[in-house]
Amino acid sequence: MTTTPGRAPVEADIERVLVSADAIARRVAELAEELGRGLATDGADDEGIVLMPVMTGSMLFVSDLVRQLPHKLRLELALVSSYPGTAQQSQGAKLTMPLPTGLEGRHIVLVDDILDSGGTIRFLQKELAKQAPASLRTIVLLRKPRPDAADVPCEHVGFEIPDEFVVGYGLDFDGLYRNLPYIGTLRPKSAE
């Protein structure tokens, strides 16, 4: 791992890099193309597209993704908590703010950082479907090889990763490590 000046204290906590910053940049560009094709298939017009990132983990992913989409679109946030504090297993999805309304007939793209237990995405898909959108697509940066994750409808996946706790590129441990430009695992001592 190369060390950038000013990054050494954070990078010292990383055991290994699973997905490099360059690989993320390339894949986000590919995902933007895939998503554009999918929206065209859904018959989405520019006025009806709503990107809904699940905060706060997906904020870096959605900021890079949205800049590569040629569509006029709206951003609406889904504020959900499922990994409070130092939890490394989902504690169940809970809305921390009501979902946006007025989504009937819109083409919604749910954007999340990681699909592991599937609870958050399944919960949000169910809640959003109640608003009768024209279409509902889901895009995630990372997916773990868990049976419950495989059962969750997800049209676009950036990377399949091992079933390990990861940080970086928006994903955190106790609010830290979101600023890393890559996805990595923590040294055991750092995850305590």
General description of the model:
The structure is a single chain. This protein has 192 residues and is of the alpha/beta class. Helices cover 25% and strands 26% of the residues. The chain is built from five helices and ten strands. Strands 2, 3, 4, 5, 6, 7 and 8 form a seven-stranded mixed β-sheet that branches. The protein is globular, with a radius of gyration of 17 Å. The mean pLDDT is 88.
Summarize, please.
By secondary structure, this protein is of the alpha/beta class.
Q: Topology of this protein?
A:
Elements lengths: L7 H4 L2 E6 L1 H21 L7 E7 L3 H8 L7 E2 L2 E4 L12 E2 L11 E9 L3 H11 L5 E9 L3 H4 L5 E5 L5 E2 L15 E4 L6
Parallel strand pairs: 2-3, 2-4, 2-6, 6-7, 7-8
Antiparallel strand pairs: 1-10, 4-5, 9-10
Helix pairs in contact: 2-3
List the keywords.
26% strand, 192 residues, Rossmann fold, seven-stranded mixed beta sheet, 5 helices, 10 strands
What is the succession of H and E elements?
A: HEHEHEEEEHEHEEE
Shape type: globular
Terminus-to-terminus distance: 23 Å
- Helix amount, in percent? 25-40%
What is the CATH class of the domain at 45-83 and 92-186? Answer: Alpha Beta
At the fold tier of CATH, the topology name of the domain at 45-83 and 92-186 is Rossmann fold
The major sheet is characterized as: 7 strands, mixed
Number of helices: 5
Q: In angstroms, what is the radius of gyration? A: 17 Å
The appropriate CATH architecture of the domain at 45-83 and 92-186 is: 3-Layer(aba) Sandwich
